[in-house]
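Many introductory courses stop at the sequence. We go one step further.
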Amino acid sequence: MDLGLAGRRALVTGAGKGIGRSTVLALQAAGAQVVAVSRTQEDLDSLVRECPGVEPVCVDLADWEATERALSNVGPVDLLVNNAAVALLQSFLEVTKEACDTSFNVNLRAVIQVSQIVARGMIARGVPGAIVNVSSQASQRALTNHTVYCSTKGALDMLTKMMALELGPHKIRVNAVNPTVVMTPMGRTNWSDPHKAKAVLDRIPLGKFAEVENVVDTILFLLSNRSAMTTGSTLPVDGGFLAT
């Protein structure tokens, strides 16, 4: 299926590892020109070696001023994937100011800032665009020791709807993808304990966690014109977890 992404220019945050890195590779394979944003220079260097032609931008999105400097002259962008996130796991009574500040700065505030920069450029150029925010099933279900993470993702889902409402008149679509546990290298490590994994798997009707390509395929669909009438959605990629 031709997704019509060839010749488009995309920006992906959190592009050094996991879902973000795989999204960069898939977008370039589909013919898009890709700007890859990560806070880790080594990850960007290896990405460029693996995927020549990718434009790397190294910046910590938790730093508002540094992000403004890094992206203010990024050039025209047609497609945006807000994937960068942190997960600092603490129980409610142990939540710290530092965990709140870091989590909300990266998982929510940076999405606002990067999306403002990109959307303003789209509007100035008078072109349509598509934005995908990578959320989580944790936006809609409480998970033990995920107080701040669940809260940031819940806020991200509502931000997605607000962006869709206010950017829609400019022909900019905004959607979220909400995966279950994804089998990135980090996901495999964090969920290697069979007892811990079973507690979640027992709530997934399909009985398995998501593979990276399950999420990437959904992101590409939401970026493409195949989803031209879809905006403001929070699309689960969770094997039915949210249905239980």
